[in-house]
Amino acid sequence: MSDKGLHVIIVGAGLAGLATAHGLKTNNISHVIVDRESGPRDRNWGVTISWAHPLMKKLLPDDLYANLQSCQPDISMDTKAAGKECILIRDGASGETKIEAHFPGVRRMQIQKTKKAWAVGLNIKYGKKLSNITTTDDGVTAHFEDGTEESGSVIIGADGGTSSVRKWLLGDLATSEVLPYAFMNFPFTLKTEQALWLDKIMNPNVDVATHPKSMYLGLFLLDKPDLSRPETWIFYILVTWPIKTEEDKENSGDRLKRLRDHMDGWADPYKSVVEWVPHDVEIKPDWLRIWHPKPWDNHGGRVTLAGDAAHSMTFHRGQGGNLAIKDADEFVTAMIDVRDGKTTLKEAMDKYDVGVVERGQEVEISKKQALAFHDYANFDNSPVMKMGIKAAGT
Ligand SMILES: Cc1cc2nc3c(=O)[nH]c(=O)nc-3n(C[C@H](O)[C@H](O)[C@H](O)COP(=O)(O)OP(=O)(O)OC[C@H]3O[C@@H](n4cnc5c(N)ncnc54)[C@H](O)[C@@H]3O)c2cc1C
Ligand SMILES: *[C@@H]1O[C@H](CO)[C@@H](O)[C@H](O)[C@H]1NC(C)=O
Ligand SMILES: *[C@@H]1O[C@H](CO)[C@@H](O)[C@H](O)[C@H]1NC(C)=O
């Protein structure tokens, strides 16, 4: 290390970047976060947090941790009190339960509320899109499209599934794989009676189904802007099926019609909800992208990855959010050891990188789960049926 002292540059203010920043702040380690966005993005979704709870307690300031419930889609939901510390998988043709995978304390967190709450008190520079990285013997510099730069000791690329830091590290090897499934992901509201019915009947965390016709459909709550007015409640659907037609491949045209054309043989709640979706709902084109980590040269311990940048997986086992927090915790631990002189930066980063790549085995497990949701006959052999939603290897 140079005598300039340890200074961390975090690229990306998503779950991984924000958790890392809080952990560094808690431990008084100098850092900055940059993000290419200048304001909140319109895309919003939920993540399932299960085994990462104790790690959030370590990383976040006490008041933020105590108020995690305010980051939920439904801020009034206490899964423990409601007896709903589980996710639900049904048979799409009958609506019957296939499995309830339990996890103590499991909760959904809405990504926009979480980003907003976790940004408070951090040094975040927005409008900084990473364009290049340069390293020297005693440091590393992140260059941004607006011509500015940040210099420090180490860069952690927490810049998501299409990470620029990953691209810088690995070139073409950083390109993600697109799974051959039609994929739709869209929010909608319902009429008062319909929203009340769905809210009562659905699992509040994850309510998804595998259908014998080779199709996956999930219902989720995104937000309850006004708890007393069900017509304001926002739900969303995730749906996937293997691409068979040119239309699916092109991923264009009237997507709601294409979805409805696929709904024969579905039971409630899915059947009715798809019928009730407002006809003018917007369904943007989307793809299921994954990336298996491949070991990278960390340039003397100067550049590494975390979260989706390090391992992008589909949502089928609900692990992405948990792993983002785990990476943050491991990185912060490494930085504490470097700061305290227990190890060199190079040694600490080599060790961190081994761990992050190993945790990336979840990409393959989640891919298996994605395939299993479209292979009804063999669903009982799928990872969720065997290991639930706990961390791989535990
Ligand atoms: C549409 C969608 C739906 C999802 N649904 C689920 C789900 O249902 N369940 C689940 O468990 N997980 C889901 N995930 C995955 C989960 O949200 C992630 O695993 C988790 O949020 C980890 O986030 P991250 O911090 O690694 O990356 P992100 O949250 O993607 O954050 C990356 C940040 O980096 C910034 N950035 C990107 N490029 C640059 C650059 N060049 N320069 C500067 N900044 C940059 C971005 O603006 C962004 O703020 C979903 C993800 C998406 C995108
Ligand atoms: C935090 O670090 C700064 C700079 O290294 C130092 O001046 C300060 O005393 C530290 N504070 C605590 C609480 O350790
Ligand atoms: C990044 O920086 C290196 C070293 O200065 C340079 O060779 C390379 O062309 C730069 N790449 C881009 C995309 O600007």
UniProtKB/TrEMBL annotation:
Pfam families found in the cross-reference section: FAD_binding_3
Keyword check for Signal: yes
Keywords attached to this entry: FAD, Flavoprotein, Monooxygenase, Oxidoreductase, Signal
SUPFAM superfamilies linked: FAD/NAD(P)-binding domain
Signal peptide: 1-21
MF term (GO), any: FAD binding
Obligatory cofactor(s): FAD
FAD-binding domain ranges (all copies): 7-40, 116-353
Protein name: Monooxygenase
Species for this entry: Tothia fuscella
